[in-house]
Amino acid sequence: MNDVEVAAQITSMKQYFSTAECRSLAWRRMQLKQLLTMTEYHQDEIIAALKLDLNKSEQESWATEIGFVVADIKHTLSHLNKWAKPRKVSTPIVAQLGASYLLPEPKGVVLIMGAWNYPFQLLIAPLIAAIAAGNCAVLKPSELAVNTSILLAKLISQYLDPKAFKVIQGGVTESTELLQQPFDHILYTGGEQVGKVVMRAAAEHLTPVTLELGGKSPCVVDANTNLAVTARRIVWSKWMNAGQTCVAPDYILVDKHFATPLIEALKSALLEFYGEDCQQNADYGRIINKRHHQRLSSYLEGQVVVLGGECDESSLYIAPTLVLNPDLDSAVMTEEIFGPILPIVSVDNLQDVAAFINQRPKPLALYVYSKNQSWVDMLLAQTSAGSVCINDGMMFMTNPELPFGGVGNSGMGSYHGRFGFDTFSHLKAVMKRSFWFDIALRYPPFSRSKLSWLKRLL
Ligand code: NAD
Fold first, then answer.
1. Could you list the pLDDT tens digit for every one of the 458 residues in the chain?
2. Is 310 an annotated catalytic residue?
């Protein structure tokens, strides 16, 4: 599709958006129910596509993509009426008799660009929010997860209103054409560099953006913790999808006296989860492509590898790998890893970790394992992150009452649950005044006494 055809599509979607039909709550509910049927009915095909793209196991695919989306749709359907209602707010004395409220209205035709690591969920979860808020949407799946992209294009055209929802597949050329269009909102999930490209393009049309980016999410482990549970939770959250998760712990910060026990606990949790020969384990994922495989293998050059390190490019396999005390200027500590390598940085004093974290770009997530609440409170107060999870990894993602999004370099804006609804809505400010009490205080001709009354009232 060339840019003229893309522009024509967006124009026809904008015309459709202006009809009352696609803004009604009944239409939104119908689309959400269709999306639910699509996800449940075709789950085997979705699982098969994810297996081809990332060697995802059935359980991971269900928990992090299909089940996640199903729960999100159900939560949205049960809260939609409440979210869409006018939200009453108070009215100051100077505007009495009057009433004030926020009226959520859909933004219009929005663009949702997904990344390849959770290629189903990262496209459909924002779509749920966009539909709930009453928008039409163009979906751009990542070209790197090609099997899921093809399947999504087929299913969305079968199940959703084709005048309101379109999937445009392709790579940089197609994304660039899309970004030239005057969308009413863009939600982009992916890396920081392309995030800047998206934001620059959006600026041309003053289109608001939500940027769901990544970065290096630190994981701080205090010696005062439940070591076995901590290790299992770190291993679960790090090696899910072979580490290709935006909120995976990127590196560990641990007191130097506690590094060895922690490494031993991580090793035994890895053995328990993936066995002696991880390469033969059907539950362990693969790297998305050769480019990323080469990028990840290069991070290991010159490092002290205390576990794993095996890289097989032909099968896109990289073993779960622990790196001890890397040079802080080496790529593994300056770039987002986004793969199955976990550096362990031992520090002299855990009291100083806030400074370590604050010297680096603001992370998408911060993980803290400790039974010492006052120390945890100190870290919460002194550091910034999109989300924080205390004593677990990425479990905060399961709660639709919590917004999901970054801060600073890890992104802007958020979604999930009502936060997604609000992201794709304009909260129109409405004040309704009574014709009674038309006090002349604010009208000319002005006088000293009018001014002094005004000062008392405001
Ligand atoms: P990607 O390569 O799949 O790119 C994402 C999207 O951007 C795709 O749709 C792609 O077509 C488009 N794109 C790529 N290059 C482009 C260009 N030059 N111009 C316009 N569009 C372009 O994904 P990625 O960037 O490799 O994703 C990995 C990053 O995403 C990591 O940093 C990760 O942390 C982050 N991520 C964040 C989240 C989140 O929810 N915050 C989720 C997943 C991944």
1. 777 888 999 999 999 999 878 889 999 999 999 999 999 999 999 999 999 999 999 999 999 999 999 999 999 999 999 999 999 999 999 899 999 999 999 999 999 999 999 999 999 999 999 999 999 999 999 999 999 999 999 999 999 999 999 999 999 999 999 999 999 999 999 999 999 999 999 999 999 999 999 999 999 999 999 999 999 999 999 999 999 999 999 999 999 999 999 999 999 999 999 999 999 999 999 999 999 999 999 999 999 999 999 999 999 999 999 999 999 999 999 999 999 999 999 999 988 899 999 999 999 999 999 999 999 999 999 999 999 999 999 999 999 999 999 999 999 999 999 999 999 999 999 999 999 989 888 999 999 999 999 888 87
2. no
Q: Are residues 179 and 97 in the same domain?
A: yes
**DSSP 3-state assignment of 273?**
helix
Distance 194 CA to ligand 1 centre (A): 7
Rounded Cα distance, 240 and 267, in Å: 15
Specify whether 226 is located in the same domain as 208.
Answer: no
Is 246 designated active site?
A: yes
From the CA of 366, how far away is ligand 1's center (Å)?
21
Parent domain of 145: 3-213+409-430
Same domain, 155 and 48: yes
Tell me, yes or no, whether 157 and 279 share the same domain: no
C-alpha–C-alpha distance, residues 136 and 221, integer Å:
44
Which atom belonging to ligand 1 lies closest to the Cα atom of 405? 41
- What residue's CA is closest to ligand 1, atom 43? 246
Do 418 and 359 share a domain, yes or no?
no
Residue 457 lies in a domain: no
156 and 89, same domain (yes or no): yes
Judging by DSSP bridges, how do beta strands 165-167 and 136-140 pair with one another? parallel
> Residues 174, 256: one domain?
no
- Angle at 231 (CA atoms; ends 72, 329), nearest 5 degrees: 95
**Residues 393, 245: contact at Cβ < 8 Å?**
no
**Number of independent structural domains in the chain:** 2
